[in-house]
Write a structure and sequence with these properties.
501 residues, globular, eight-stranded mixed β-sheet, NAD(P)-bd_dom_sf (chains A, B, C, D), alpha/beta, homotetramer, Adenosylhomocysteinase-like (chains A, B, C, D), S-adenosylhomocysteine hydrolase-like protein 1 isoform X2 (chains A, B, C, D), NAD (chains A, B, C, D)
Amino acid sequence: MNHGYDFPRQIQFANQEEKQEFSKFPTKTGRRSLSRSISQSSTDSYSSAASYTDSSDDETSPREKTQVNSKGSSDFCVKNIKQAEFGRREIEIAEQDMSALISLRKRAQGEKPLAGAKVVGCTHITAQTAVLIETLVALGAQCRWTACNIYSTQNEVAAALAESGVSVFAWKGESEDDFWWCIDRCVNVEGWQANMILDDGGDLTHWVYKKYPSVFKKVRGIVEESVTGVHRLYQLSKAGKLCVPAMNVNDSVTKQKFDNLYCCRESILDGLKRTTDVMFGGKQVVVCGYGEVGKGCCSALKALGAIVCVTEIDPICALQACMDGFKVVKLNEVVRQMDMVITCTGNKNVVTREYLDRMKNGCIVCNMGHSNTEIDVASLRTPELTWERVRSQVDHVIWPDGKRVILLAEGRLLNLSCSTVPSFVLSITATTQALALIELYNAPEGRYKQDVYLLPKKMDEYVASLHLPNFDAHLTELSDEQAKYMGLNKNGPFKPNYYRY
Amino acid sequence: MNHGYDFPRQIQFANQEEKQEFSKFPTKTGRRSLSRSISQSSTDSYSSAASYTDSSDDETSPREKTQVNSKGSSDFCVKNIKQAEFGRREIEIAEQDMSALISLRKRAQGEKPLAGAKVVGCTHITAQTAVLIETLVALGAQCRWTACNIYSTQNEVAAALAESGVSVFAWKGESEDDFWWCIDRCVNVEGWQANMILDDGGDLTHWVYKKYPSVFKKVRGIVEESVTGVHRLYQLSKAGKLCVPAMNVNDSVTKQKFDNLYCCRESILDGLKRTTDVMFGGKQVVVCGYGEVGKGCCSALKALGAIVCVTEIDPICALQACMDGFKVVKLNEVVRQMDMVITCTGNKNVVTREYLDRMKNGCIVCNMGHSNTEIDVASLRTPELTWERVRSQVDHVIWPDGKRVILLAEGRLLNLSCSTVPSFVLSITATTQALALIELYNAPEGRYKQDVYLLPKKMDEYVASLHLPNFDAHLTELSDEQAKYMGLNKNGPFKPNYYRY
Amino acid sequence: MNHGYDFPRQIQFANQEEKQEFSKFPTKTGRRSLSRSISQSSTDSYSSAASYTDSSDDETSPREKTQVNSKGSSDFCVKNIKQAEFGRREIEIAEQDMSALISLRKRAQGEKPLAGAKVVGCTHITAQTAVLIETLVALGAQCRWTACNIYSTQNEVAAALAESGVSVFAWKGESEDDFWWCIDRCVNVEGWQANMILDDGGDLTHWVYKKYPSVFKKVRGIVEESVTGVHRLYQLSKAGKLCVPAMNVNDSVTKQKFDNLYCCRESILDGLKRTTDVMFGGKQVVVCGYGEVGKGCCSALKALGAIVCVTEIDPICALQACMDGFKVVKLNEVVRQMDMVITCTGNKNVVTREYLDRMKNGCIVCNMGHSNTEIDVASLRTPELTWERVRSQVDHVIWPDGKRVILLAEGRLLNLSCSTVPSFVLSITATTQALALIELYNAPEGRYKQDVYLLPKKMDEYVASLHLPNFDAHLTELSDEQAKYMGLNKNGPFKPNYYRY
Amino acid sequence: MNHGYDFPRQIQFANQEEKQEFSKFPTKTGRRSLSRSISQSSTDSYSSAASYTDSSDDETSPREKTQVNSKGSSDFCVKNIKQAEFGRREIEIAEQDMSALISLRKRAQGEKPLAGAKVVGCTHITAQTAVLIETLVALGAQCRWTACNIYSTQNEVAAALAESGVSVFAWKGESEDDFWWCIDRCVNVEGWQANMILDDGGDLTHWVYKKYPSVFKKVRGIVEESVTGVHRLYQLSKAGKLCVPAMNVNDSVTKQKFDNLYCCRESILDGLKRTTDVMFGGKQVVVCGYGEVGKGCCSALKALGAIVCVTEIDPICALQACMDGFKVVKLNEVVRQMDMVITCTGNKNVVTREYLDRMKNGCIVCNMGHSNTEIDVASLRTPELTWERVRSQVDHVIWPDGKRVILLAEGRLLNLSCSTVPSFVLSITATTQALALIELYNAPEGRYKQDVYLLPKKMDEYVASLHLPNFDAHLTELSDEQAKYMGLNKNGPFKPNYYRY
């Protein structure tokens, strides 16, 4: 199959190593899963999908079916429109944990701040993103949507969206050809031209940029959520080719803290328990990397009685680890004694075969950090080692002397593969996306130029404030006198841009 | 065979309420599951069984099959002897986490302290208990074994035991009739008479006591693990009918701490995550009861950022809660604000309909304490409330105004139903059982009378010491001078009986 | 009167070592300070006394002065009756933290449960014990009081008690002769014969026993608070010479937990900060002993970012340390790396010269456990080592190569010497003493025999319940149905005697 | 010399309120202590000075004495040159905790990076700053020094510096006139012209700027540590009058974290204990403000068993408080129940009379945040309230109904007034200052313009790395391959400027 142009591959593979790794994967999986694994925040679908009762009996491709929703529309393509009712219930359950979006609907509904907005979106399609999409609709937008990942679509949810009138093109298990076909169907419509892009990964953005340059030029703004997508936007901007303002919502304070520190604090425990049933008390653990993810992992494991030490390359983070009560070591000093080795560095080959050879029998190895590069899993695929799959996502790698190392998720992200992302964290992300759309769509001429922007701090604060009711948290207001004393506006922003929360 | 006699029922139902509850259950389940739910420590099998690939296609009753193991013996009855190989691997994996038993095999193997012992056992039949049984064999015992629960047998493990020569009578999904038939087959053998009993629940003990009184009188000792079984033994003893020394291993210090404080500290998080994917940070939680289980739950939830308060009836435990940083409240003062209500009291009707009516939308309710009595689930089965099962073990109970309360495991034990028990905790229990058997079998005449005994503190300490190598923990030894100063034997016991660990 | 007899010495020195150590101390200090150091709970006076403005100019012995209080009585002997007003304010401030006693006054005042009681007491004389004494008076008792320690009396408080009518005989800086003279003045009065003894250390009890045997026989009960005193009572009882029921209040659950776990959790930090201003974050600390005191120390230090490991002789406590996240080591494995070495064993020579020689420069060594035996301080008094006192309670011991070890309180108890005991902890103790007096005084004939008793659990619970209002803690009451289900009286006791809190 | 000019006052008083408050203070104290209270990091001297044996008998002003050191120099002015030996020992003890500076001396001594530097400095004069000064000398600098605070000078240390050849002009208890006289003596010297300024508060900088503009213009760089001083520099820069590059070391990452989060985590406990002996367990505490200081206070108090809630104005910080397990409330909702109220906002009038009126008896109120503005202490100086000083820094404010509120340090900073700053924290600051001096002095032409700069991240990392040996922390090094993958230099900097540690 020839999509004619090949630009995304050149951009998407950060370096030669990734490209080589890619080529080892069976073609059926395609490049999507590889590229998406870089985005920690967009990974909820894998595990929660497990609870779905998707009948996989029907092997007909959705592209070959004709389906009509109850209002007579057929401007969508999903697995099975009849699953809409089940999907609707899932959306309703998700709404309960995403009250910030519901409250945004209420606050902004009167004025319809997205009236006239024509949003084309490309994200995971799950109950939680459905709540986002339906919020955009409630605020006045017209939406067309497709999936950013060929595996993560919850078919029932896609059906429910289609039934409610959103033009959605997505199903679980798309081929690469399907993937681009779906994107194209979103953009390429008679009599409808997108003026806003909401993207997660950058594929939609590039499709529009390359295939429909005239549409691209008239877009008012792009909202991008993922590390990869943001990286691609900065590259475009650097190359002077970004003719549209774009908002990097990945690096908002609120989202960062929730995606990394708070979410990983819980998912490290969850992922380890679900895969290994290990008892944490008394276990000796080394956590490689003491950034936000490492801080979250260390805090949780220590709290449950593990004895945790840390490796770091950055002396400031190392000093923080000391002050937080974690011994800072080199991996080679401790690897023989450890019961668990957890990587959170964002780097590659942190755990090499040399270290794996020295681990003790029963040692658990997993990756919480980045892609699938941190543990050198390839080095374990040698003839003298036996791999034994003992559970889904759990392999025993067995040395000739009988030693077993327990490798989780084949070195891919544990939190992506073996635990779930709470709806509350997804609510933070989705609210941030919605606000960024509203901001870009309504910003007066000139506020944003053809560049990549961070979310204004005041909007970051607004996202946070919309989530406080979940905790019955009551904010204090500055008096006039206090605001003056502090030199602050009573409504924020409350901190300088360089403030470290 | 006529099981028509009814003595166990009279003893087993502690009170009228339980009897009534029993009668509501479908007869197929039978009384076993009800009575067993009282024992926290013997519940591992439920969830870990999930990973087994038991082919349930074969509907023939094992009692009607003829099977022979590779050595030509057919003195067993299991689902399918051909599953032995798979079961053997499971046992080997379990052995890795139960090194205390392996080390006991090594230390005691030379002297064969159980040479001549004829042990009849009735426990869950899982990979972990298989490690125990094979340890007893390694120490010189002959063993015949049956299951204490009609659902919990891991068929592959039973097959592996049968293949290795243990006379095991057990399969998953026995009828009540099967259950007693299996027990009888263990005891009633030509030319073999049990002289030790290892029981979990007391059914085997009672069967021998009632049906084979002459065997019972010649037994050297009984080792009983469960709360229920211990209760029945104390009653027998009180009634002057216990003609055999019995060891209550349920109340050993080590086992208690691990079953309650340390295990629940982890399983509360695990059980909640697996069922609800809830985020703990910022959640308002009330824990009813601040005993060991409550202490474990509170400590874990607080550590992950929940805001926890406690209810208590005992002022000493209440004061401990205060000093540990938990507000002590009455349930009615806080129930409207809570995101989760967790019971750990051992009491009944702690959460009544009155409280359930006042909970907020989305409140999670679960039981970590005792049986299924703490939450008045029966009160929720009224016409105006709708039950919606959203996942296995998770029901939404919906009020007329749309409010949903999320009830886990229908009010049964969360840790039993929705999380696993780590092998390490089971190792503590199994080692305690093995040592108790050795002690009773080898005790000189007169050390134990016809009564129920707690494990001697020195053996409790020995169980602990066998598990220290798992943590690479190095014990300090008293010098002669120090031992004299403290008035202690250098080998323990180190504490008086009334010491509060 | 002849103070020449020596019976207390024979009893008080537990063994030969203590006796030898005693003889090294200057005679001026006398044996009192040595013997008292064993009792952790009775040591508040040292540091809090520091805030007093005692004019030490007046060198006249109180025994040679004639003083009269405002009501014309001179049946007392204190430093200076004119200090009464200052002392009264101190007592009033203490009352604010001891609301349990005030509430006891209110609850029991109507019925005067101590009407007719003639209590002779020997305790530290501080604002807090004054609140106790005045509570006894409010409940109907007549009291005569003396000090159990020659240094700890707060003169102003003694004056206030004398002014209010209590016959108190005590001042700061008594000689040993003064000490016994004061005790005798309490007991030996025309027309007044004690019928209750409240003792802290056992000296008063022994004086009465030896000097006034006829009084001793008619005493209704003895309440003893200290480890030493309790030990002496058990010896008397064992020897068949205890003709009076005695209550061991030292080992009540509530008092034990507060004196050890909760109090040490705070005093370890306080003692270290006040003496050394050390920063805890990142410090490597070994805590010797993981009993209640060790648990408190470890918990606090870990919480503030120290990296803590533990030594233990008892495998059960060692296993607890593991599960709580502390590596269990031998001292010789880690001593070179440590920043602090803290002893909490109750043993002797835990830190020997051998270990001190291997400590690194700047290592802090202190004792939280027992007496002054845990660190072998004597071994440091050798010619090649230089001692440099850098602050009160802080010595630098300097090795020939310049290495400095920082020794706190010369190896005596840090919490006794360098931190304070909160009034709240003293309130627990005082309330326990008051209730024990009431119980013994009012017990029906035959409830208590000539033996040493632990406080009944129900009264232990009552002490706890009287302190709950301090925390605004609300206890839940059992319903009738629940009490029946649990087999409990609704008013307690709620736990069996062997319960481990 | 005319001290009559008033420029510093115009700059230093941020607003009219401060000016008014100032006028209430006795003139002897002068404006210095007021202005200095704003700088948290420079406050060590107060409490540690307590251990000094300063003979205050000699009332002669140092300005009127003639003193000569052992080398014959008299180019200094201190209280008493004979105290030099005592001061030298203090410096040696401080060196033990400041090994980063010692190691800097070693690493840089060969190349003398400050050869030719003529540094005029104005800081607190304590053992710790003496270590800094002597490090600068060891690196090649010539130093003249004066005190930034009229009270904080440790006379013995000043003597030791003078004895060793540093021209120091400072003593404890200077008048305002003395203060400026000392500064002038540092700057105004025949044949010596400063080319570097190290300042703490900005007074020295302004003196040079105003009085010696020709010197000012030739200075190569200014290093400023305090909030106040930095504020003044930014104002100068904004006004276009800063003709010299200046380094703001106050806002370096390492210093900020240590001064605020880590230091306050310990000093909140220390300050409260030393003043009130309060028990933390079970206490209800509200912390106003959840910035770094608030985070440190909350974490420590929670760890010791207090029940902590938080007030916030910033929704992002409020959300962090929720996720960390602290209920976010408004002060008026909880103030009646609190045992302690702690301010950490940096704002004014956070605790007003209205709230103070509603506090319960015994409530402790203190300020950890900023200056003396947070608690409206002035509102308590009304006739109906009685003030009773019960200890140094502790006042009971008594309401007509007898209610007592316990006010610490009269609302000034608790950590400044009632606890100490560990040498380790001061070492971080001093090392940062030394490196900033080296950087500015050696920077190639053009690297720094006439502006205020933050410490380059790489130097921030270097400060951290110099302190890692204190914790025996071992940093991991990037491999070439890893550095390339991450796009980092192997020697750092390791993080982008916007990174939030």
